[in-house]
Hints:
Layout: H1 13-35, H2 41-44, H3 49-61, H4 65-69, E1 73-77, E2 82-86, H5 88-93, E3 118-119, E4 122-123, E5 132-133, H6 139-142, E6 149-150
Antiparallel strand pairs: 1-2, 3-4, 5-6
Amino acid sequence: MVKQSKKGQGLSTSTIILLILGLVILVVLIWGFVTGWNVFKPLVSPTNVDNVIQDCTSACSVNSKFSYCSAERTLNVNEDSLNIKSTCAVFSHASAFGKYSIPDCPTISCDLKCSDIKVNGKTGSSSVKAGYDVSSIATDTTSAGQTCFVSK
């Protein structure tokens, strides 16, 4: 009886696994480019409301005026497709963010002018009449009865 060598016959297991893995990656890339990458956003940047609440509460408890009034944080809420960059003072006072229950800090007075308040890089203005209402923290509009909005 002659032994027959089976070398070179068929594909090895590792080659089959690599082919399947390459096919899966190719399908994911095609799907991502065709339908958009928003499906993967919750995996990459999860909702961070609890982290922002904790940061703002900590800034208030140590009486850090800069951290509470001026340091920008990003609020990500995947359920609402929200990604906003602003300060604890804005998040706690603007009615648009009220449902996230970011606490106010009664021990810190921010003393911010309307033009110093920012949301997503846009500054507040008393001439704008729509957007995020931040009149409650703008010191230059409360005495004059004006409003301060940051456009969306």
